[in-house]
Specification:
Largest sheet: 7 strands, mixed
Active site: 19 (proton acceptor)
Pfam families: Pept_tRNA_hydro
CATH class: Alpha Beta
Radius of gyration: 15 Å
Shape: globular
EC number: 3.1.1.29
Strand order of the largest sheet: 2-3-4-1-5-7-6
Number of strands: 7
CATH superfamily: Peptidyl-tRNA hydrolase
Helix content: 25-40%
Number of helices: 6
CATH topology: Rossmann fold
Strand content: 15-25%
Site (Discriminates between blocked and unblocked aminoacyl-tRNA): 9
Distance between the termini: 28 Å
Number of domains: 1
Protein name: Peptidyl-tRNA hydrolase
Amino acid sequence: MRLIVGLGNPGLKYERTRHNIGFEVIDRLAESWGISVNKEKWKAQVGEGHAGGEKVILMKPQTYMNLSGASVRPALDWLKGDREDLLVVYDDLDLPPGKIRLRLKGSAGGHRGVQSVIDHLGTREFKRIKIGIGRPSTPMPIPDFVLSRFQGAEEKAVAEAVTRSVRAVQEWIDHPFAEVMNRYNR
């Protein structure tokens, strides 16, 4: 069983914003695998199905970004899952738009949603895909920036990053994450 969590904020107001790129990856995976992410469970929208012979759970926490761990922990507990089966996808300010980085573990790097997951799981050791959203080019509060939409050339770069992230998740179903990580982090 694989639990794939995309971080974001619920509601139309936040759709297509930088902070919701994790939700976009979940939506694309759901479309690719024919899974409806429409059940309400664990304070999240959830979809269940199969991919590559594995049972997969796609999840979009509805707790708002900073409380994401309040959905992830009960889901992992209920599924009697191991952290080895968990993958979290989210935005990263420190990567340029369009760049992705896969990691087996790490700090939150200032990302409050990831910090919530770390706090609720009691560990930094879980798989993740970070998708670059860059930093503001003009002085702007970070909360305003992450809740803004991509502009111009960023849109194409980010769309390609979402596609690469979806492919990386799909490859993880059939291959060890370290192998996938080495391929995508080049």
